[in-house]
């Protein structure tokens, strides 16, 4: 994929400085996204841009100036096919991270990375525009929401418990006695309500994520009135959309390619962000922006500066 020499020059976009390093990361991200789209379309499956990628396509025709990751969504049935087939259709060296198959701290969705480790091979650097770092695409399943609000609330409550357990476990060394008592009670509730057993062995977090996935997809194949990404819906109640919202798509420019976005992207973005045309950089969230800040520690580790 060709990018002009001018593309990689540092520039100000609004009040944000886009460095040469970030430009290279953006180019590598577009390259990686193109390979993921190729793998999706090879199986005649469907996807559309979500979250920051959707917002960037609509508002900036590319990345949000302070963003650097890629988010796409797939209907649950297509997502299930893709998570099993993508190993065969992605380029050699790509790494598929599935929290339902491996214990991946902090990950609760499918992520496709262009490499397992930072890669300084000349051929790799040429393909990914001088960016040796791990570039990923997050893939979200789009699920049916039960028409019964009480049933939907029950799913969200269970997902909240699972997320809370994972949060405690992420920093288990600093967990208080109350945290551990709460954790034990939440595990008991999930086992009882989901009719499952969650022994605390090496498979515990994987089995917990499988329950998360099973709950999210409980209405797969049902003709419900609304759909959602449960990954966000369980803590954002308004995060639901009319059935068909993500199945009708149009193409919009994204950097130097085009990507599919929901046809009614305005309604989607207003649900997600409100007045989405007014740029604002989110503060005090778990989403940290800035490629250079995120991967600065790798510079010294591999001795390479982009």
Can you characterise this structure?
The protein contains ten helices and eleven strands. The strands form three sheets. Strands 3, 4, 5, 6, 7, 8 and 9 form a seven-stranded mixed beta sheet that branches. The protein has 306 residues and is α+β, with helices and mostly antiparallel strands. It has two domains: 193 residues, no CATH class; 70 residues, no CATH class. Helix 5 runs antiparallel to helix 6. About 2% of the residues have low confidence. A hairpin with a 2-residue loop joins strand 1 and strand 2.
List the main descriptive attributes of the protein structure presented here.
two-stranded antiparallel ribbon; 11 strands; alpha+beta; globular; 2 domains; single chain; 10 helices; 306 residues
Quick recap:
The chain has 306 residues and is an alpha+beta fold. The chain is 43% helix and 16% strand. Residues 284-289 have low confidence and may be disordered.
Radius of gyration: 20 Å
Low-pLDDT ranges:
284-289
Determine the strand fraction and express it as a percent band.
Answer: 15-25%
Shape: globular
Mean residue pLDDT: 92
How many strand units?
11
Terminal CA distance reads: 19 Å
Helix and strand content put the structural class at: alpha+beta
H/E topology pattern: EEHEHEHEEHEHHHEHEEEHH
How many individual domains? 2
Which sheet architecture does the biggest sheet show? 7 strands, mixed
| Total of helices | 10
Percent of residues in helices = 40-55%
């Amino acid at each position: 994929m060709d990018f002009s020499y001018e593309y990689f020059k540092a520039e100000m976009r609004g009040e944000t400085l886009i460095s040469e390093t970030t430009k290279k990361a953006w180019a590598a991200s577009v390259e990686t996204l193109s390979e993921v789209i190729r793998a999706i379309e090879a199986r005649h499956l469907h996807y559309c841009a979500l979250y920051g990628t959707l917002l960037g396509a609509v508002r900036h025709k590319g990345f949000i100036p302070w963003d650097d990751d890629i988010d796409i969504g797939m209907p649950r049935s297509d997502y299930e096919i893709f998570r099993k087939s993508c190993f065969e259709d992605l380029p050699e060296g790509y790494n598929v991270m599935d929290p339902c198959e491996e214990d991946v701290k902090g990950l609760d969705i499918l992520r496709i990375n262009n490499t397992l480790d930072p890669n300084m091979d000349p051929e790799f650097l040429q393909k990914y525009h001088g960016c040796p770092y791990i570039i990923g695409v997050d893939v979200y399943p789009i699920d049916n929401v039960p028409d019964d609000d009480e049933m939907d609330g029950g799913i969200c409550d269970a997902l909240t418990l699972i997320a809370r357990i994972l949060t405690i476990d992420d920093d288990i060394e600093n967990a208080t006695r109350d945290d551990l008592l709460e954790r034990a009670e939440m595990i008991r509730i999930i086992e009882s309500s989901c009719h499952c057993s969650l022994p605390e062995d090496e498979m515990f977090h994987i089995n917990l994520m499988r329950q998360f996935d099973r709950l999210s997809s409980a209405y797969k194949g049902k003709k419900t009135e609304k759909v959602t990404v449960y990954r966000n819906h369980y803590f954002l109640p308004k995060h639901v959309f009319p059935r068909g919202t993500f199945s009708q798509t149009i193409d919009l420019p994204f950097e130097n390619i085009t990507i599919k976005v929901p046809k009614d992207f305005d309604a989607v973005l207003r649900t997600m962000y409100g007045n989405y045309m007014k740029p604002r950089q989110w503060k005090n969230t778990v989403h940290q922006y800035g490629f250079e800040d995120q991967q600065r520690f790798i510079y010294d580790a591999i001795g390479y500066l982009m």
